[in-house]
Design a protein that fits this description.
The complex is a heterodimer. Chain A contains 22 helices and 8 strands. Chain A is of the alpha/beta class. The chains are: A alpha/beta, B alpha+beta. The structure holds flavin-adenine dinucleotide (FAD) and iron/sulfur cluster (2 copies).
């Protein structure tokens, strides 16, 4: 038995086949095939561990067609954590059959899904880049050099530098354009007028925000600055490692993770803020898992993870947002819980309380708010025939609320939902919570200016 | 539940039933024909796919040869005709959560997957009825009905996964069945495909119906041996105006079971009256974190529902009875959230015991409620006698007991002891005027104990009845009665 499977064997044995994990697994509910329920996948993984079954193509598909949404972990009374066992099985595949196994799957998946590529094309393109570019040789799938494929016009980390609002100082958003070499590490020593450590936070952008949705990143910086925080954005930060980790390539995942831990640990900051649910989960919890065989490095990981906060979590924990400073946003709003926030990090109340704090916002809870939107990393690209209906169900729940905005806390969900809304020609707009907060701040400023103008005019 | 080695040995001795060979092979030709009937995307033949239809929620596994997912009664009829002609056994399956080996394809052959026939066809609010296909998940039906102010009373703890078809085949119960009755009381009529392929309709849409034999009730609880349910007319009820949920805590298990007899003896029928002993309290609490008292010897989870005015009075009477029987504390759940969490804890407790030992086996014996205290104390004795941890979980109000025996199936000697302990539990229950199964069915796991409860004549009648429906013995062979 491969060591990776050996490690989870005890958990596998805990599964008593009660079937409760079928309840909320969207993949199972869509296809209604036992092999795609957590119970079925675990049975096959156990068979492979016991040497009863070879790592066949069918087996690979069963292990890959999982959203990693963690619904099964929540419904399992026996504490099995099927999602983690599935990850272990992916790792076992990479270790025993090499990265090529993923490559074949990717090629197959991409070709099979060509006619559906229209759905959220932008996000698929990025996914290809995120998921495939680290795999040697895979970048040229379909004759396109994915690594060079343009995705965002300008990644956030490269584009920062325009006039920044608020109290940004060098080391935060460099007002004079990107510092040569892109490092802001020098700024980590407080000095002169720089605010003290307790007001400094680092921002881990993550690839998705950096590459496709830099607006979210800008909003994070602006909201933090408006609330008295100085933001450090280390340019050498790397991918969080999730794409590699959930595909089973722990080695590459560890490389980037190590670089991140070392980089951020050198910063003198109160917190490391993230606005991507999957990055947050990795940084906060999964890094421990990455390095569990390396006890010497673990203390560093612990010190790093302990400071990581999701943006909503951070704002609420620090009581930073003062409703009196927010302008009116008269709009009906609903909220989608990203799997990796609600189940991954237990963050659900915070974004809701922030939304309710915005004057004028009419918050309506959608049905099944915490059900997966169908993104699931590469899942949407490989299994569009399953992901499509999952997303449509989400869209139906959104439509029923008659909200104008669908707010969420993860760029991946946002892409998926917005892609779906566009395709279905639905009028709702998807938006990250921090963007909405920033809009409320802007509304307050505009109102303030208007009042000021009105006051001068009347004089 | 049954132990694999033991089971296999027993099978070898007695043959698997109905004179069928141990394993019926399905030819390529028949598989092609099946694919023609249901469509190529509704048939599974790959080894990996078959492996996951070899099990249900019990321990043994039997590999089918093919899995098909029919769309409607007509396709089911075609499949059964083919199976009859070719003498291929068919095992019907809903969600595969049953606890009696009922959906296991004992002889290979065909697994008939009904999970995809899952439409709610109609809800008639005026007449409080619904028409559903068999694959509808119990909780999905409840969620659909709730906004209309209606509910379907049977609520097995597995409701988030199990299907209405499975519930009908097992005549399933659940906590609130104490007041409301079991599945059988809520099925008004059925569409059934007979093993020989005829599509028939039983009952109707009215609660009162005495036209002819009550075939509906014959099919309910028939464990997939007499026909395939393809549609069901269900009876619904309006959601009661309010409810009160109480938690009574005891330092002595016997005081808890005496309270149950006292409440029923007073002529009070709460909606639910559930008992958990110390071990199960611990397991439930570790999973659900609801603040259950882990030091208590037992708890009773009691709920009453009805018109608002009556609730507090009912709750007060029950609280008093609990105190009279030495409850150390009686709490009332204050918020809907608290009530919900208590029920999550109760529903998940069977699964949660896996935290203690790798395997569990549970019985489903049921005794008259007045005999509950005796039954419970005998289970505790048996636990000591065989040196096995046995948790006591009971739908106590209706005397339905689930003694959970914990062991490690890899340990042969321990597994033997489990077998003996369970036999003794069954004998005690029967001696107290009870029955082997209250709600999980006989299936494969308990069929060899059937003769403890049924006389030879009764078993023979069961066989003859079955042969009348299924002359070739193709439908779920080997279940309920063996060879
Ligand atoms: C943790 C746990 C808790 C449980 N709690 C309860 C409980 O509180 N109360 C209770 O009563 N049960 C309980 N059960 C048992 C189980 O959930 C029920 O027996 C349930 O009704 C099975 O439904 P299913 O859809 O899973 O059916 P399956 O397990 O797939 O099948 C059950 C039987 O029904 C037959 N069948 C299925 N569909 C059809 C059909 N359409 N036509 C004809 N035959 C069919 C099968 O052949 C089989 O014999 C529990 C199980 C577990 C694992
Ligand atoms: S993580 Fe989600 S998709 Fe994967 S098995 Fe669990 S519930 Fe299903
Ligand atoms: S809920 Fe847990 S114990 Fe039950 S089948 Fe799923 S993984 Fe196994």
């Amino acid at each position: 038995m491969n060591q990776v499977l050996q490690d989870v064997y005890g958990d596998l044995m805990k599964c008593n086949k009660c079937g409760f994990c079928q309840a909320n697994c969207r993949v199972y509910k869509e296809v209604l095939e036992e092999g795609l329920s957590a119970r079925g996948r675990l049975r096959l993984i156990k068979a492979v561990a016991d040497g009863e079954l070879a790592r066949t193509e069918d087996y690979v598909q069963k292990v890959q067609a999982c959203l990693q949404c963690k619904e099964c972990a929540v419904s399992c009374p026996s504490g099995v954590n099927p999602d983690r066992i599935i990850l272990a099985a992916r790792r076992d595949l990479v270790e025993t059959r090499g990265l090529g196994i993923l490559k074949r799957l990717a090629v197959r998946g991409l070709f099979a899904s060509r006619r559906r590529l229209a759905l959220s094309f932008r996000s698929l393109r990025l996914l290809q880049k995120l998921f495939l570019s680290w795999m040697p040789g895979l970048a040229k799938v379909r004759g396109i050099n994915l690594r060079k494929f343009p995705v965002a016009e300008r990644p956030l980390l490269a584009s920062l530098g325009g006039p920044a609002p608020g109290n940004s100082t060098p080391g935060g958003l460099a007002p004079g354009g990107p510092a040569p070499g892109g490092s802001t590490l020098g700024a980590s020593t407080p000095g002169g007028s720089t605010p003290g450590r307790s007001e400094r936070v680092a921002f881990f952008t993550g690839c998705m925000i950096d590459n496709t949705l830099p607006e979210i990143g800008k909003a994070v910086v602006e909201v933090l600055e408006r609330n008295g925080r100085k933001v450090i954005l280390p340019r050498e930060q790397q991918c969080c490692g999730t794409p590699m980790y959930i595909s089973g390539d722990l080695q590459t995942a560890r490389q980037v993770a190590r670089a991140n831990v070392e980089l951020f640990n050198r910063l003198d900051v109160e917190a490391i803020v993230v606005a991507c649910a999957s990055c947050g989960l990795a940084l906060k919890k999964e890094y421990r898992e990455f390095f569990k065989d390396e006890p010497a490095f673990l203390p560093q990981v612990e010190a790093f993870s302990a400071r990581v906060r999701d943006i909503s979590e951070y704002l609420v924990e620090q009581a930073l947002v003062d409703p009196a400073e927010l302008g009116r946003l008269p709009a009906r709003v609903t909220y989608h819980d990203p799997c990796h926030l609600v189940r991954g990090q237990g963050v659900a109340a915070q974004p809701r309380s922030l939304l309710k704090a915005i004057p004028g916002v009419d918050f309506v809870e959608m049905a099944e708010a915490d059900r997966c939107c169908g993104a699931g990393g590469m899942f949407q690209a490989f299994y569009p025939e399953i992901a499509g209906p999952i997303t449509r169900r989400k869209l139906g729940n959104i439509a029923a609320t008659q909200a104008e905005y669908v707010v969420t806390g993860c760029p991946a969900c946002l892409q998926r939902i917005q892609g779906g809304l566009d395709l279905a020609r639905m009028p709702q707009k998807g938006i990250h919570i921090v963007e909405l907060l920033n809009m409320a701040h802007q509304a307050a400023e505009n109102a303030g200016e208007k009042r000021a103008r009105a006051a001068t005019g009347s004089r | 539940m049954v132990v694999p080695e033991k089971q296999l040995a027993a099978e070898k001795e007695q043959g698997r039933g109905n004179g069928l060979p141990e394993r019926v092979i399905v030819s390529e030709k028949v598989k092609r024909r099946l694919a023609e009937i249901v469509g190529a995307d509704r048939i599974l033949t790959a080894h990996e796919d078959l492996m996951v239809y070899a099990y249900d929620a019990t321990l043994p596994e039997y590999l089918p040869e093919v899995v098909v997912f029919p769309r409607d009664a007509a396709q089911v009829a075609e499949i059964l005709k083919l199976a009859n002609a070719e003498q291929i056994p068919v095992a019907p399956r809903g969600a595969g959560t049953n606890l009696s080996g009922g959906s296991l394809p004992l002889h290979g052959g065909i697994v008939l997957g009904l999970a995809r026939m899952n439409r709610i066809l109609e809800v008639d609010k005026e007449n409080l009825t619904a028409v559903v296909e068999p694959g509808v998940v119990n909780a999905d039906l409840q969620a659909y009905l709730a906004p209309m102010g209606l509910f379907y009373p049977p609520d097995p703890a597995s409701m988030n996964a199990c299907t209405i078809g499975g519930n009908i085949a097992e005549n399933s119960g659940g906590p609130r069945c104490l007041k409301y009755g079991v599945t059988r009381d809520y099925v008004l009529g059925l569409e059934v495909v007979l093993p020989t392929g005829e599509i028939i309709h039983t009952g109707g849409r009215t609660v009162k119906n005495t036209t002819g034999y009550d075939l509906t009730r014959l099919f309910v609880g028939s464990e997939g041996t007499l026909g395939i349910v393809t549609r069901a007319n269900l009876r619904l009820l309006p959601i009661p105006e309010g409810k009160r949920t109480l938690l009574a805590v005891y330092d002595d298990l016997n005081d808890a079971s005496r309270t149950v007899s006292a409440i029923i003896g007073q002529g009070i029928i709460p909606t639910t009256l559930e008992l958990m002993d110390n071990m199960l309290i611990g397991c439930a609490e570790d999973f659900a974190h609801v603040g259950l008292p882990k030091d208590a010897a037992a708890i009773l989870l009691i709920e009453v529902d009805g018109f608002q005015e009556s609730l507090d009075r009912q709750a007060r009477v029950i609280e008093q009875l609990c105190r009279d029987n030495k409850a150390r504390e009686v709490r009332r759940a204050q918020t809907a959230e608290e009530v919900n969490r208590l029920w999550v804890a109760r529903r998940t407790v069977i699964g949660a015991v896996a935290r203690v030992r790798p395997s569990y086996s549970l019985q489903d014996v049921t005794v008259p409620p007045s005999k509950l205290p005796q039954m419970v104390s005998r289970v505790v004795e048996i636990s000591g006698k065989y040196d096995l941890p046995i948790g006591v979980l009971a739908h106590a109000g209706d005397g339905n007991l689930h003694p959970l025996v914990l062991f490690d199936k890899r340990n042969r000697e321990e597994t033997e002891r489990v077998e003996h302990a369970e036999s003794e539990i069954c004998e005690v229950a029967l001696a107290l005027g009870g029955t082997l199964s209250g709600e999980h069915g006989i299936g494969l796991s308990k069929r060899r104990r059937l003769s403890l409860e049924f006389s030879a004549d009764e078993i023979e009648l069961t066989r003859r009845l079955r042969a009348l429906f299924d002359p070739n013995g193709i439908l779920n062979p080997g279940k309920i009665v063996g060879e």
